[in-house]
Write a structure and sequence with these properties.
This protein is mainly beta. The protein contains 3 helices and 16 strands.
């Protein structure tokens, strides 16, 4: 069996795996530490990648950067720039990449040939606008790419977001990801379409409890059972130093099991005009793959 045929065999196997699952992992440490609840929570610097309807709430330009160096040679990087568009809209440009390094390629006799890597990601442009006094809509156009050894695929897809504030302390959010999304492969003159599964998220956030945010979410991936998530964030203030530390925890349902996440956020004043938000989350591992440490950074204008 030639090396190229072996790679083709691996590729065909990938066609039967769940596509786009890495896109559902999360893009910033804050949302992951809160159990992945994100559809109804404002995420500084990352709203274009999560729920584009929140872009209407941006006052000044925001940058978001995530770097997840994960167990089993996995990694995720995300970048987003967003800004307001007066009088009541917002726009964002974003990039997301997820990959695995050090994949060993062998021949039919299990002899080592070389090491390679695989990654997939997308570039995105998002737009949000006020729909009514207490609600907003958002849309995201995505251009996907998947690189597997000598082969690559591309595709186009869409996200849709909606938020409504029925009261001062309650946020409701809806997000539909990967609408009409698919990869288009071509191997040896043969063309293949691989669907990227659509996901619906319904979120609820309550913010009236003293310095605490409570949030819940229902996720429904196409052709799969619905899963629940819960999260909380508590702002711990240090009066003498005028510093706030955000303590976070969350629960995520996975294959009838409950996974627990935790993390924190620390705002750092860089100057009179700039502030940096450092967010951290620990992922204990969903399938005993080991612990991962996740970091995100949001640069804001004061």
């Amino acid at each position: 069996m030639s090396k190229n045929f072996l790679i083709l065999f691996c590729f065909i196997g990938c066609l039967f795996a769940e596509s786009g699952s890495s896109f559902r992992y999360g893009v910033n440490a804050k949302s992951i530490s809160m159990g992945g609840t994100s559809a109804s929570v404002y995420n500084y610097g990352f709203n274009g990648l999560i729920n584009p309807a929140f872009l209407t709430k941006i006052d000044k330009p925001e940058f978001g950067i995530s770097f997840f160096k994960m167990s089993l040679d996995r990694s995720i990087q995300a970048f987003s720039y967003s800004r307001n568009l007066p009088p009541s809209a917002g726009i964002a440009l974003s990039f997301f990449k997820s990959g695995i390094d050090q994949i060993i390629v062998t021949d039919i006799n299990n002899n080592f040939i070389e090491k390679t890597d695989q990654w997939e990601g997308y570039g995105a442009m998002s737009f949000g606008f006020k729909f009514m006094k207490r609600s907003s809509l958002g849309f995201t156009l995505k251009a996907y790419i998947n690189e597997l050894y000598d082969y690559s695929a591309k595709g186009i897809g869409f996200d849709f977001g909606f938020i409504v504030n029925p009261s001062e302390f309650v946020d409701l959010g809806i997000c539909v990801q990967n609408l009409g999304s698919k990869y288009k492969w071509e191997i040896g003159g043969q063309k293949y379409d691989e669907d990227i599964l659509m996901m619906l998220q319904l979120g609820f956030t309550y913010r009236q409890i003293n310095n605490m945010v409570l949030t819940g979410q229902l996720d429904k991936v196409e052709n799969q059972d619905a899963l629940i998530r819960f999260g909380m964030e508590y702002e711990f203030q240090i009066p003498k130093n005028d510093i706030s530390v955000f303590l976070r925890a969350g629960i995520k349902e996975r294959n009838s099991d409950l996974l627990f996440f935790t993390g924190f956020g620390i705002p750092v004043k860089l100057s009179n005009r700039l502030k940096l938000l450092l967010d951290y989350s620990i992922d204990p591992g969903m399938m005993d793959e080991g612990v991962s440490h996740l970091f995100s950074f949001s640069l804001l204008n004061n």
